[in-house]
Amino acid sequence: MSTSADHAAQRGLAEKLGVEPGMIVQVVGSDSSSGPAVDQGLLDDVASRTGTELVTTEDSDEVVDIVLLWWREDDGDLVDTLVDALTNLADHGVIWLLTPKAGRDGHVEPSDIDEAAPTAGLSSTRSTSAAPEWSGTRLVSPRSSKGASRR
């Protein structure tokens, strides 16, 4: 596959995650020492598609539209991290929980996500292949899913 085809494939992934121009995206968990490294191509494309700088500090007070939460099995308590990820999320914002695909180091069982999300006050709305090594689970606050159009 050519470089331009690689870029087009990544652009499709950013679009699949609902990333739109002008959105503010916060990245959490990109510096974990456990499990695989994040997909830099996806991050680059998200930044390119939004036209804004990614928020990479968890200490920021900027309201964000999307949180890209990179999570691996040994990263700690998922519920606590999801609650923390809600801090700067806009009312209709989305958390994409990005976990290593099955068979990869750091894989998180879907049942673990299904248990953690409601405890953190979130609902899982769908899952997708977010990058070659990563799965994505779309999480929203129940208040943000009300009145949202259904596909």
Protein topology:
Layout: H1 3-16, E1 25-28, H2 40-50, E2 64-70, H3 78-85, E3 89-100, H4 110-119, E4 123-131, E5 134-140, H5 142-145
Parallel strand pairs: 1-2, 2-3
Antiparallel strand pairs: 3-5, 4-5
Question: Which features characterize this protein?
Answer:
disordered N terminus; disordered C terminus; alpha/beta; 151 residues; Rossmann fold; 26% strand; 5 strands; 5 helices; globular
In short:
This protein has 151 residues and is of the alpha/beta class. 31% of the residues lie in helices and 26% in strands. α3 (78-85) links the parallel β2 (64-70) and β3.
User: What is the number of independent domains?
Assistant: 1
How far apart are the first and last residues' alpha carbons, in Å?
32 Å
| Strand order, largest beta sheet | 1-2-3-5-4
Spans of at least 5 consecutive residues with low confidence: 1-11, 144-151
Individual helix count: 5
The mean pLDDT is 86
Number of strands: 5
- CATH topology: the name is Rossmann fold
